[in-house]
């Protein structure tokens, strides 16, 4: 029985998250464009300012904390004496957590855009989308981060040796 390629599985998960964010952003733009007048009654000037502050602060805190957690988990996985498969599992967990910390505030900014029609929220959502794009998993980086040997790479690729 052929095992799945752990590198490709992680890449597919990342692509799915990216596609989800893009689809949400496109849907938000279409929804705001279709409404044309004030999008929703809940969006006064005060709401927009307060929600912008919340979104920006949450974005900054989430990105800073998320990257620190990600880095800590990556070093823990790298320094682990466990098999390559277990280190890859730790890496995958770190990536999923980091990507969630990137994606969450981006989705919140998208909701702010839908509620207010203010393109500053959309810009923030796009920034988060681009940050997520920058952190695309690359096989060479994973091998380096986890200090994998050639046998472990072959096993993670799902090939029998």
UniProtKB/TrEMBL annotation:
Keywords per UniProt: Membrane, Transmembrane, Transmembrane helix
Biological source species: Niastella caeni
Membrane-spanning parts: 12-31, 51-70, 90-113, 119-136
Name used for this protein in its record: Uncharacterized protein
Domain of life: Bacteria
Keyword Membrane: yes
């Amino acid at each position: 029985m052929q095992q799945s390629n752990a590198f490709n599985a992680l890449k597919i998960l990342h692509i799915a998250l990216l596609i989800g964010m893009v689809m949400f952003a496109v849907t938000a733009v279409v929804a705001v464009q279709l409404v044309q007048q004030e999008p929703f009654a809940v969006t006064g000037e005060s709401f927009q300012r307060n929600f912008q502050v919340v979104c920006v602060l949450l974005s900054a805190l989430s990105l800073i904390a998320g990257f620190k957690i990600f880095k800590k988990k990556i070093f823990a996985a790298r320094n682990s004496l466990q098999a390559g498969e277990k280190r890859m599992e730790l890496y995958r967990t770190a990536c999923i957590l980091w990507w969630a910390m990137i994606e969450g505030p981006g989705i919140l900014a998208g909701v702010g855009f839908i509620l207010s029609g203010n393109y500053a929220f959309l810009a923030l959502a796009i920034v988060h989308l681009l940050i997520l794009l920058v952190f695309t998993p690359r096989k060479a980086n994973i091998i380096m981060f986890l200090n994998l040997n050639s046998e472990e790479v072959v096993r993670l690729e799902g090939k029998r040796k």
